[in-house]
Specification:
The structure holds two protein chains of two kinds. Chain A contains 13 helices and no strands. Chain A is mostly helical. The longest helix of chain A is centred in the first third of the chain and has 34 residues. Chain A is globular, with a radius of gyration of 22 Å. Chain B is of the alpha/beta class. In chain B, the strands form four sheets. In chain B, strands 6, 7, 8, 9, 10, 13, 14 and 15 form an eight-stranded mixed sheet that branches. A three-stranded parallel sheet of chain B has the order 2-1-3. In chain B, strand 9, helix 10 and strand 10 form a beta-alpha-beta unit. In chain B, helix 2 crosses helix 12, helix 5 packs parallel to helix 7 and helix 12 crosses helix 13. The longest helix of chain B has 24 residues. The chains are: A mainly alpha, B alpha/beta.
Chain lengths: 336, 426
């Protein structure tokens, strides 16, 4: 088999894995948009905030330590204990539920029936607030996140592919774990949305706020629930991305990776986020391999690399030409 | 009543205003945003050094130093706003701490007669003082960095890189592209093949680049990264089992922040530097006594001795020495920005001077002149010891390949002079 084809296969598989990570971020957007019609600009910052909170709890960090020390002249930094990863994750989930409640009580409860652009702008404000609040609460330093997830090359795949192609494929163990978790998450979310009472209520709210209210569904409860779910998904994304790069401000920028996925998969479909993520992941990686660095067709087209960021959007736009609502999005028909 | 109120407000404002006879240093810091983790230690070091001079020595030449901090968030527009908002305070020098901000400030600062010190960043050809009269980039620049890395590899390979492949993983921006030209020229001279791997901002996802490294198997990887790009690159290199001792970052890819997230895997990673590491210097006792323990540290006091804290402190030390030079040259203690420029242009850093400041062997010796605003291009290589959690210098300070760099600086600065109708000369 030609060497280029073997390399392309490795790139393809890694594209799939990268796509899963993009989809994890996109899922949070979909959940909130599906239930409330809000495009949550703060989703990336929620991933950052949740990961910072997780590390802070695990390390026994004193929240707002800098503020307390500067105000009272103390020298507090750590409580002196470490919290096991699983318990810390549970406590972080509680924090994210608290955040969801606060966001609803303070912001969105007062914005019912407002234009989508107003709600969107409110999430921009929320994003900036959370950025600063997270920094004050946990500090701006880069934190190592280790919840016990494996990282590095998967030996079994390396050896197996070496036997076949005389070249061992690189697949990151962390990406494999992310794939399994994402699959489980999507399955659980679909089951929840389709078969649970709260899930059906969430879909009813998504279809029509006023009709849902008229049959006794609590809009407040559903919104808090949806923001909590989005917070949980943000935590999962934050753990995966934070394990790769350390927990730092740039985690909030992973939202950039979710936008083309949403455009392609549709803003209202949970499976769409996954399929969109996979298409974007594979598409951008293969395009970079073939035309970004000119590895295909004898280097006929070589754009010099760094094509992934813009190509993801181009790919999404190409799909939009044929399906404006995205692959799995709901077709909106408005009659005059 | 209204008049009384206005008088009271005016009196309060006057009382709150700082004394006008201070030496004003503007610290364009970034304690927020994506690069805050790097901006905080640099700013802490920069400010703490001036606080030390004020507390211990009563300022510089009897004049107190007043540091005006302005938050840029590493954002070019905000950086320019900071410059415009603070230049009227009588700022002596700006350390923009961003190549983007530097490019915007070069024409403004030149017109305003305020010098810029772009230490190890910014426009490399600003080394030519005949063209860039108000810009200084001593003690080393990016082209020095590229040459220093290649010289290190040449020495490791017995004097030749023939048949070797060197990859450059770089931030796909003006900053990241700076070393390409130099590396291309050096490739012709030393016979290695150069492989370019750009990474888009912010660099959170680099799977494609590191699969390329795995497939094409370069012998060495150089990195021009910043922020999250560094941490991800080091982690990806660990993941593909690239030998860390063959991975060398520029000085902006060589702080504790860049290696700690990768844990033990980052052991052996190398980076260039133009100043020493750690806190085993006499000055740290004074910093502890007069600044940190006295509760006067700029930040939480938890960054002392880190790579970027040291760099900020070193930048402040160079600014303070330039102020002293200017005071001696002009015979006044309360100098102007024009006089500061003269001080910077006549700055000479010797080992005896650094030892006297409590920083023996902390940085290379160099001398600035009208023709040479960039120093002598000396730097060193340091290596990360993950188990000890510290960097250590593994080479002496050595000089970049001036035969290659000098013509490149002349060519680029001449082009800038022609574009901007600048008459070069001293």
């Amino acid at each position: 088999m030609p060497e280029t084809l073997v390399f392309a296969m490795e790139v393809f598989l890694n594209g799939l894995m990268a796509g899963v990570l993009y989809a994890l971020v996109a899922l949070g957007f979909v959940l909130i948009y599906k239930a409330s019609g809000i495009f949550n600009y703060a989703q990336g910052v929620m991933a950052l905030f949740s990961a910072m909170t997780l590390v802070g709890i695990m390390n026994g960090q004193v929240p707002f330590a800098h503020l307390i020390n500067a105000t009272f002249g103390t020298d507090l930094h750590y409580f002196g204990w470490n919290v096991p990863a699983l318990l810390a994750i549970l406590l972080t989930v509680v924090v994210m539920i608290g955040l969801a409640w606060a966001v609803n009580q303070i912001i969105f409860r007062h914005l019912v029936n407002q234009e989508p652009i107003i709600l969107f702008m409110a999430t921009i404000g929320l994003a900036y607030f959370l950025e600063g609040f997270g920094d004050i609460m946990w500090g701006a330093d880069i934190k190592k996140l280790d919840v016990g997830l494996p990282q590095g090359i998967n030996e079994a795949i390396d050896e197996a592919t070496f036997q076949i192609f005389d070249y061992g494929f690189f697949i990151d163990n962390l990406d494999i774990v992310a794939t399994i978790i994402a699959a489980a998450l999507v399955f659980a979310l679909i089951v929840f949305a389709q078969y649970s009472k709260q899930g059906r209520a969430m879909r009813a709210v998504a279809d029509d706020h006023q009709a849902a209210l008229s049959v006794g569904i609590s809009l407040n409860f559903i919104w808090v629930m949806v923001w909590s779910l989005a917070g949980f998904v943000a935590l999962v994304a934050g753990i995966m991305w934070g394990t790769k790069s350390g927990v730092q401000f740039s985690l909030s920028l992973i939202a950039l990776k979710a936008l083309p996925v949403l455009m392609l998969g549709g803003f209202t479909s949970i499976p769409g986020a996954i399929v969109g993520g996979l298409i974007i992941g594979v598409g951008e990686k293969l395009f970079e391999f073939c035309f970004g660095i000119g590895q295909c067709f004898g280097g006929f087209i070589n754009l010099g690399g760094a094509t992934e960021l813009w190509f993801a959007y181009v790919l999404a736009l190409i799909f939009l030409v044929f399906r404006p609502q995205g692959l799995f999005g709901e077709k909106i028909i408005e009659r005059v | 009543m209204k008049q009384k109120l206005l008088t009271a407000i005016a009196a309060t404002m006057m009382a709150a205003s700082p004394a006008l006879a201070d030496l004003v240093i503007v610290d364009t810091s970034y304690r927020t945003g994506p690069y805050a983790a790097n901006g905080i230690p640099f700013s802490d070091g920069y400010q703490d050094y001036f606080t030390l001079l004020n507390e211990r020595d009563g300022g510089i030449g009897g004049e107190a130093v007043r540091v005006v901090e302005c938050e840029t968030g590493y954002n070019t527009e905000k950086g320019v706003e900071c410059y415009e908002a603070t230049k009227g305070e009588g700022a002596l020098v700006y350390q923009p701490l961003s190549t983007g901000i530097t490019y915007q400030l070069i024409p403004k600062a030149t017109a305003d007669g305020i010098p810029l010190h772009t230490m190890g960043y910014g426009r490399t050809s600003a080394k030519n003082g005949e063209v860039f009269k108000y810009v200084f980039n001593y003690p080393a620049n990016y082209w020095d960095g590229a040459s220093l890395a290649i010289t290190h590899l040449v020495e490791q390979n017995g004097g030749s890189l023939d048949g070797k492949k060197v990859a450059l993983v770089y931030h796909n921006s003006a900053y990241g592209k700076e070393p390409i030209r130099t590396l291309e020229v050096l490739a012709e001279k030393h016979g290695y093949e150069l492989m370019l791997l750009p990474v888009d901002h912010p660099g959170q996802e680099q799977k494609s680049q590191w699969l390329q490294v795995r497939q094409q198997r370069p012998d060495y990887v150089l990195m021009w990264g910043w922020g999250v790009m560094n941490q991800v690159a080091v982690q990806e290199a660990v993941n593909i089992r690239f030998p860390m001792e063959n991975f060398i970052g520029i000085w902006w890819s060589g702080s504790e922040n860049d290696v700690k997230p990768a844990g033990d895997g980052a052991n052996g990673y190398k980076a260039l530097t133009f100043h020493n590491v750690g806190s085993d210097y006499p000055i740290y006792a004074d910093l502890a006594k007069y600044v940190v323990d006295a509760g006067k540290a700029a930040g939480a006091g938890d960054q002392v001795g880190s790579v970027l804290y040291n760099r900020g402190m070193y930048a402040a030390m160079l600014a303070a020495e330039a102020i002293k030079t200017a005071q001696e040259m002009h015979g006044v203690s309360d100098i102007t920005s024009q006089q500061m420029r003269d001080g910077m242009e006549n700055l000479e850093i010797t080992e005896a001077k650094m030892a006297g400041l409590g920083l023996p062997n902390f940085g290379p010796e160099f001398k600035v002149s009208c023709q040479n605003h960039g120093g002598n291009g000396f730097g060193a290589v340091k290596q990360w010891d993950a188990s000890a959690g510290e960097w250590s210098l593994i080479t002496e300070y050595y000089q970049s390949d001036q035969d290659v760099i000098t013509p490149l600086v002349k060519e680029d600065s001449a082009a800038f002079a022609a574009e901007n109708n600048i008459e070069a000369g001293c």
